[in-house]
Amino acid sequence: MTRDKQIINYAKGLLKVSLEDGQFSEERAAAVLQSLEKNPPRNYASVLKEYLKLVQREVANSTAAVEHAGDLSPAATEAIKAKFTAHYGRAISVTTRQNDSLIAGIRVRVGCDVYDSSVAGALKELEATLS
Question: In which domain of life is the source organism classified (predicted)?
Fold first, then answer.
């Protein structure tokens, strides 16, 4: 096994330890980091970089980043959370950010998936079909 694969596998093991009921746990991650600090593995910096990358991916896959034009009610936020939790079959948290460049509507990003229901997105798509 190459050194890189060993590092990746080690980091994946650390990520597994950082999950609680399939969800990323900050408390468990803190315990993992404390343990690593006390007993650093070979290639410590590389392991930490790979672990960080996996944690960022895990958090992004569990978060719906909602951009919206205008106001977004708490009821709409809860509806989005329920819809994406059901869609992905895991708990999804929601972060919101107002983005007036969308003109109207919302854009939601969960991990690498983007759901665009904005006027700006529709205009961009129309522009692409006309050119």
Answer: Bacteria
CA distance 68 to 100: 7
Q: Which of 23, 3, 21, 10 is nearest to 51 (CA)?
A: 10
Joined together, the tokens standing for residue 123 give 């205009």
Per-residue pLDDT tens over the stretch 52-108: 999 999 999 999 999 999 899 999 999 999 999 999 999 999 999 999 999 999 999
The number of residues in the chain equals 131
Q: Is 104 helix (H, G, I), strand (E, B) or coil?
A: coil
How many other β-carbons are positioned within 10 Å of the β-carbon of residue 46?
17
Whether 118 contacts 104, CB under 8 Å? yes
Write down the residue that tokens 């665009």 correspond to: 116
Q: What is the pLDDT of residue 96?
A: 97
